[in-house]
Amino acid sequence: MANSALLVMDVQRDIVAIADDGSGYLPRLRQAIDGARAAGIPVIYVVIGLRPGDQEVSPRNKVMTNIVRAGLFTEGQPGTEIHDDVAPQQGDVVVTKRRGSAFSGSDLDLVLRARDIDSLVLTGIATSAVVLSTLWHAIDLDFGLTVLADACLDTDPEVHTMLTEKLFPQWADVFAVEDWLKVIAPQ
């Protein structure tokens, strides 16, 4: 995992408030972050942020139009900040994206290539949104992929289970945080 990075995607205050089901998601994600750091794996945060005034949202984009109407994800608003329980440390990279995939409208690919990162470990909210979109995009960019199933969260548990147990294993290694930490633990 020498050329890997852990992506912590869309774990922002408003998103956590909508999706967190009280199952211990944030502490598990914190364990993954701490374990990655201990193993020397960079942690890169990805947030969704839209410019005020919906300048970049086409009315043809149903999902993004609904998000803008709900007043979510406007840059500079408190709800767009990364949740305090998993907040970045000084020196961590935070990438802002404009759509579903962590690569869409962001400089993530540039950040990864500059660090010679060729494998990604995906975490985030929601499994059926940012994780799925980023996984597909990363496949097309030839990244090696790992998904930490219990460090991903979705508002629909059945969709989460279907993705992490049936679809994702076709293209990525899928681990529970605890099992992944055993794999990356410094010897």
Automatic annotation (TrEMBL):
InterPro entries: Isochorismatase-like_dom, Isochorismatase-like_hydrls, Isochorismatase-like_sf. Residues 4-178 form the Isochorismatase-like domain. It holds the Pfam family Isochorismatase. GO terms for molecular function: hydrolase activity. It comes from the Bacteria. CDD domains: cysteine_hydrolases (cd00431). Its EC number is 3.5.1.110. Keywords: Hydrolase. It is an enzyme of class 3 (hydrolase). This is Peroxyureidoacrylate/ureidoacrylate amidohydrolase RutB.
